[in-house]
Write a structure and sequence with these properties.
The complex is a heterodimer of chains A (318) and B (280). Chain A is mostly helical and 318 residues long. Chain A has 2 domains: 3-54; 73-317, Orthogonal Bundle (MetI-like fold), CATH 1.10.3720. Chain A has 12 helices and 2 strands; from the N terminus they run αββααααααααααα. Chain A has helices spanning 3-54, 71-77, 80-111, 119-127, 134-144, 152-159, 171-199, 203-211, 216-244, 248-254, 267-277, 281-317; strands spanning 57-58, 66-67. Chain A has a two-stranded antiparallel ribbon with strand order 1-2. In chain A, β1 (57-58) and β2 (66-67) form a beta hairpin. The longest helix of chain A has 52 residues, at 3-54. Chain B is mainly α and 280 residues long. Chain B has one domain: MetI-like (MetI-like fold, Orthogonal Bundle). Chain B contains 14 helices and no strands. Chain B has helices spanning 12-39, 59-69, 72-103, 109-119, 128-137, 144-151, 155-168, 171-179, 184-195, 197-213, 216-221, 230-237, 245-265, 267-279. Chain B is globular and about 75 Å long. The relative contact order of chain B is 0.14. Classes of the chains: A mainly alpha (318), B mainly alpha (280). Chains A and B meet through α1, α3, α4, α5 and α6 of A and α1, α3, α4, α5 and α9 of B.
């Protein structure tokens, strides 16, 4: 009984100490995240808000801005070149990224086979293109795929009895060359992610399936693929966002004709041209806002579709 | 993967797997090899049919032409300075914020962290124009700090650091240090930092190589050849009147070679930086 007041007292002291400690932690917490949020406010948030504001102004960068309402959006959305750039971006996006999904999974699956020797050699070589910069890749491919009849790409075509292609200036030539380039640089990256995904699948699932008499193909279809789903969703998301932001590859690949020809002009190139070649910052900002909407929409739809397909399939087989 | 008990020496299926992977490896390596071939050949070699696929003897001569065209080593140095400073700043800012998010309780923590994740989705092009004018107002247009400042913003870094710190720095350790009267910043410096060094290697590779290869912003900000980074300088090579393929490939070859060597030496670290950067 005599102990009680003492006990109550220590609790009080502890609580008080805890409280001041918690306050200190709270201050430290805010203090430590402050540098990031200061940087974010200046070069992240402010530019984004200003961009949205600019989308409704007419501005050449020098004279005062004038409010024009939705006129910039009207200009962009009625410009055939804008729609051409949207079309180009989507076509190159599909050609460049969709095959990565198929080949990436195939490479990862094979690289994980138990009997395979020289695993690290294959892994390193397939990943290697990713470490080169986009500018370097675009320059290498601009030489591999040049308009010359003697370029390596055209020589390979001639071996197959096909006519040479103007890779730097034709409607489909440019798109195919740039898509191959995107595929070449990124397929190893996706392979590594899928490989990590496959390796995270517990082995007993396969053991149980083997005991139940499932063959390799059935295991691939009913264990590997469903378990790999989160990784596929992730790569589909990043590929979609990345594909819609395509800029460096076509710009460097096309060199001098990057902003004067339209065969491979992407949305970001259209934006860049408006802003820094034509000094029309209002319409360029409107394009940036439209791009944000497009990216959000495509990313949402593609992610939703990939996340949905497997589920339906699995349910269908249950 | 688990293998069935039967062990045949070399089945047709296995040979097929090797053939397929070897073709993939060839497809990946060939452009590198061909870049090297072109870098050692005169431009005229480009017109020969069938194409030359063996190295020539002009490795040095072609590089001399590159040096006449662009200030190669200065551009390489500019890129290095930018990337080194950016990496240090991002590592510091991210680990400090990651520490706060992992170990401290403060009001609005969840909302603020979600806000950081959301910023990762915003396309960088959205802010490009105001960023350009911001930099130009600050007098940083066409300067290296002007390029750097944009790369300081790195939400992925905070995400990775928070993850790593909450997994590998035990709460008890932080509590014990507090009881000993350690200030929070000393806990960060003396306890957290030594533990998270491996994560610094991962994030460092991600940040450094992203800044090294970035093009749009560097291309927008830099005008004077004196300030060119290696990416902007390389892009100028194909803008000459008489396109010299041997010269272009020589520039690309010498700019890529150091990266290739570093990658081949530390390939495990590079590859794990990808999985840790995206899978978590």
């Amino acid at each position: 009984m005599t102990m009680e007041p003492v006990k109550a007292n220590t609790v009080k002291v502890r609580k008080g100490r805890y409280r001041s400690e918690a306050k200190k932690d709270m201050i430290s917490g805010y203090l430590y995240i402050a540098p990031f949020f200061i940087i974010f406010a200046i070069i992240g948030l402010y530019p984004i808000l200003f961009s949205i504001y600019l989308g409704f102004q007419k501005w050449n960068g020098l004279s005062p801005m004038t409010f024009v309402g939705l006129a910039n959006f009207k200009v962009v959305l009625t410009d055939p070149l804008f729609w051409k750039s949207v079309y180009n971006t989507i076509v190159m996006g599909i050609l460049g990224t969709a095959p990565q999904l198929v080949f990436g999974i195939a490479f990862a699956y094979l690289l994980n086979m138990a009997f395979l020797k020289f695993k690290n050699f294959f892994r390193v070589t397939i990943f290697m293109p990713y470490i080169t910069s986009m500018v370097a890749v675009a320059l290498i491919f601009s030489v591999l795929f040049s308009d010359h009849e003697s370029s390596l790409a055209n020589y390979v075509l001639s071996l197959a009895g096909l006519d040479p292609v103007n890779w730097g200036s034709s409607e489909w030539g440019t798109k195919i060359a740039i898509s191959i380039m995107v595929f070449w640089r990124w397929v190893g990256y996706n392979t590594i992610i899928y490989l990590a995904g496959i390796q995270s699948i517990p082995n007993d699932l396969y053991e149980a399936a083997t005991i139940d008499g499932a063959n390799k193909f059935q295991q691939l279809r009913y264990i590997t693929m469903p378990m790999l789903k989160p990784f596929i969703v992730l790569t589909v998301f990043t590929s979609t966002v990345g594909a819609l932001q395509l800029f460096s590859e076509p710009t460097v690949f096309l060199g001098n004709s990057a902003f004067t020809r339209d065969e491979a002009m992407t949305i970001v190139m259209y934006l860049y041209r408006d802003a820094f070649k034509l000094q029309s910052f209002g319409t360029a900002s409107a394009t940036a806002i439209i791009l944000l909407v497009l990216i959000s929409a495509f990313a949402a739809v593609n992610t939703f579709l990939t996340a949905g397909t497997g589920r339906k399939k699995r349910r269908g087989h249950e | 993967m688990n293998q069935p008990v039967k062990r045949r020496k070399m089945s047709a299926g296995r040979i097929l797997v090797y053939v397929f992977l070897s073709l993939a490896a060839l497809f990946s390596v060939f452009p590198f090899y061909w870049m090297f071939v072109m870098a050692t050949r005169p431009s005229s070699a480009y017109n020969s049919i069938p194409p030359t696929i063996t190295p020539g003897s002009l490795l040095v001569d072609n590089f001399k032409k590159v040096l006449n065209q662009i200030d190669f080593f200065h551009a390489l140095w500019n890129s290095f300075v930018i990337c080194a400073i950016v990496t240090l700043v991002v590592l510091f800012v991210s680990s400090l914020a990651g520490f706060a998010f992992a170990k401290f309780q403060f009001r609005g923590k969840k909302i603020l962290f979600t806000a950081i994740l959301l910023t990762m989705i915003i396309p960088p092009q959205l802010g490009l124009i105001p960023q350009y004018f911001l930099i130009s107002k600050a007098g940083l247009l066409d300067t290296l700090p002007g390029v750097m400042i944009l790369f300081f913003l790195n939400p992925l870094g905070i995400f990775l650091m928070r993850q790593y710190i909450s997994e590998s720095v035990p709460d008890e350790l932080v509590e014990a240090a507090k009881l000993d009267g350690c200030s929070n910043f000393r806990i960060y410096r003396n306890i957290v930092l030594p533990i998270i060094l491996p994560a610094f290697a991962t994030l460092g590779i991600i940040v450094f190589s992203a800044a090294w290869g970035e093009f749009l912003w560097q291309f927008t900000v830099l005008r004077d050849p004196e300030n060119y980074t290696i990416q902007v300088a390389l892009a100028q090579l194909s803008n000459t009147r008489n396109v010299d393929f041997g010269m272009i490939m020589s520039g690309v070859f010498w700019a890529t070679l150091p990266l290739l060597v570093i990658f081949l030496l530390f390939n495990k670290l590079f590859i794990s930086s990808i999985t840790e950067g995206s899978v978590k």
